[in-house]
From TrEMBL:
Its EC number is 2.3.3.13. Pathway: Amino-acid biosynthesis; L-leucine biosynthesis; L-leucine from 3-methyl-2-oxobutanoate: step 1/4. The chain holds residues 1 to 389 of 524 of the full protein. Residues 8-270 form the Pyruvate carboxyltransferase domain. It comes from Paenibacillus arenosi. GO terms for molecular function: 2-isopropylmalate synthase activity. Keywords: Acyltransferase, Amino-acid biosynthesis, Branched-chain amino acid biosynthesis, Leucine biosynthesis, Manganese, Metal-binding, Transferase. Belongs to the alpha-IPM synthase/homocitrate synthase family. LeuA type 1 subfamily. This is 2-isopropylmalate synthase. It comes from the Bacteria.
């Protein structure tokens, strides 16, 4: 009998938090194009923008709300009436919708940014969650900078939001400060301490300042979070957010451990990643996990030899499943005879042992002076070697 696996809801904020990356602003049409790709990718919740922030943002959220009944569309708002009104209006035509409202929870933010006391923030949370709940069934409450907040106060704030009808509680690591064990512990603590926590869904929203956004999101899943907020390629403020493709592939590649499922259709990952990179003018690092140029390329002779015998020797994911055009072998100074023979045979040329040795010597001279040897250059070596005979 097939066991029903716990589902992790993928909340995509590429078009809101992702767009907050410096220089990443999208034009209206680009936003619509990316929304379409994200829906096809299979995200569960789409946060297409911040409706109150500009007429263009409002219109983009409104248009996306009308186009995609298959996803839940989320309107982002500060805990103030004007923002909530704009989010409610922009998402009015969505088949499934949510208002996502946030307020800071840490004393650092309360003192220096909001200039409010803890009691005032709690009161505002109550009023604004209740206000939003008049218009929509689903309210997500985010306690901004949760990881630097005093934890008992955080639990009180969450309890207040739940009492007023918030159905999703998001605990963001706004400045990417937490260590994975601390982040998981925060979820356990709040889920234990806040009354009503057993009736709501917990969500994690991690930033990547210390390179821990994916690890922290996984720690939150272990501690009971069922929704993870992500962006494609990890784009976002400063060093960005939890990368969608990394999180999804960590869950999928190690499903033996996690026993969880998402709705993401892996075969679209690569294409969506390239589109986001192109439209946001944010190049992808060559060594970026999952979608970087080098993620499935192998230069060393030992690795190439292993791969030619069995791909599992040095690959833990199948690039074909991710829609990645796959060039297994990159020739360079570390490459060996096996790889050269394999590459040449792709051009229909079979070399005997002497010919291969000759090509190999010529190839090495080439390779010492450049980073990679192109197929054309290899074929020149082959031509020269065969001409010598
Ligand atoms: O990083 C953050 O805290 C956020 C929230 C307001 C969800 O983007
Ligand atoms: Zn954020």
């Amino acid at each position: 009998m097939n066991e029903v696996k716990r589902h992790i809801s993928i909340f995509d904020t590429t078009l809101r938090d992702g767009e907050q990356a410096p220089g990443a602003a999208l034009q209206f049409e680009q936003k619509l194009l990316l929304a379409d790709k994200l829906v096809r990718l299979g995200v569960d919740v789409l946060e297409p923008g911040f409706p109150v922030s500009s007429p263009g943002e409002f219109e983009a959220v409104q248009r996306i709300s009308r186009l995609y009944p298959q996803v839940e569309v989320c309107g982002f708002a500060r805990a103030v009436r004007g923002d909530i009104d704009a989010a409610v209006k922009a998402t009015a035509d969505a088949a499934k919708r949510r208002i996502h409202l946030f307020i800071s929870a840490s004393d650092i933010h309360l003192t220096h940014q909001l200039r409010m006391t803890r009691a005032e923030v709690k009161q505002r949370t109550r009023e604004m969650v209740a206000y939003a709940r008049q218009f929509v069934d689903c309210v997500e409450f985010s306690a901004m900078d949760a990881t630097r907040a005093e934890q008992s106060y955080l639990a009180e704030l969450v309890e207040a939001a739940i009492e007023e009808g918030a159905g999703i509680i998001n605990l963001p690591d706004t400045v990417g400060y937490a260590m994975p064990h601390e982040f998981g512990e925060m979820f356990r603590f709040v889920r234990r301490e806040a009354r009503g926590a057993e009736n709501v869904c917990f969500s994690a929203h991690c930033h990547n300042d210390l390179g821990l956004a994916v690890a922290n999101s996984l720690a939150a899943i272990e501690a009971g979070a069922n929704q993870i907020e992500v962006t494609v390629n990890g784009v976002g403020e400063r060093t960005g957010n939890c990368a969608l493709e990394e999180l999804v592939m960590a869950l999928d590649t190690r499903k033996d451990y996690w026993q969880l499922e998402t709705n993401v259709r892996m075969e679209h990952l690569y294409e969506v990643s390239r589109s986001v990179s192109r439209m946001m003018h944010m190049p992808i690092a060559f060594n970026k996990p999952v979608v970087g140029r080098n993620a499935f390329q192998h230069e060393s002779g030992i690795h190439q030899d292993g791969l030619l015998k069995n791909r599992n020797t040095y690959e833990i994911m199948d690039p074909v499943r991710l829609g990645i055009p796959h060039e297994l072998i990159v020739l360079g100074k570390h490459s060996g005879r096996h790889a050269i023979k394999h590459k040449v045979s792709q051009y229909g040329i079979e070399l005997n042992a002497d010919q291969l040795n000759d090509v190999y010597d010529r190839f090495k001279q080439f390779a010492d002076n450049q980073k990679v040897v192109t197929d054309q250059q290899l074929l020149t070596c082959v031509g020269e070697a065969l001409d010598q005979e």
